[in-house]
């Protein structure tokens, strides 16, 4: 095989993109009191990965503006909050899922706008609602909702929480999910619970 090919790997653009997202996030934290929704303060920026919450909150470099980054960041923080809730308030967690299944007995699969499986689709009826609620404390609600409505992923959960905002909010309040238990009010043990790798199982 020929061995005269000189291939150089240039990671400078990737590094610059990651640094840009880091600086955007630090800027958001300087301008807004995000601490109350920061159930974890360990953040990883992985340019090509899909954002996810656990084991370490991971962002990518696909966000193009502050609002997109704010909403994505809070979306992943809401996964931590919901993980805490599912373990700390197990009976209410079970009831919450029962009521969501009763309200929406059929949910779409991923090809039709749902999440990767049925559990995740119901889960994102909660997470997406919490994302919009928390992000709206730092940006105009109309802009937050418009961003959510245009997301190319979790289309059915986003569309549903926007359409059914008030009844879902009442359901979440009845089960003690909201008002938020703020991260700044949680003990170290509670925050460790939020860091569990998975939500509590549902029946």
What's the SSE blueprint?
Blueprint: H1 12-31, E1 43-45, E2 57-59, H2 66-88, H3 90-103, H4 118-135, H5 141-149, H6 155-163, H7 165-174, H8 188-194
Parallel strand pairs: 1-2
Keywords:
203 residues; mainly alpha; two-stranded parallel sheet; 8 helices; 3% strand; globular
Question: Could you characterize what this model shows?
Answer:
The protein has about 200 residues and is an all-alpha fold. Helices cover about 55% and strands about 5% of the residues. It is built from eight helices and two strands, in the order H-E-E-H-H-H-H-H-H-H. The longest helix has 23 residues, at about 65-90. It is globular.
Summarize the structure.
By secondary structure, the protein is mainly α. It contains eight helices and two strands, in the order αββααααααα.
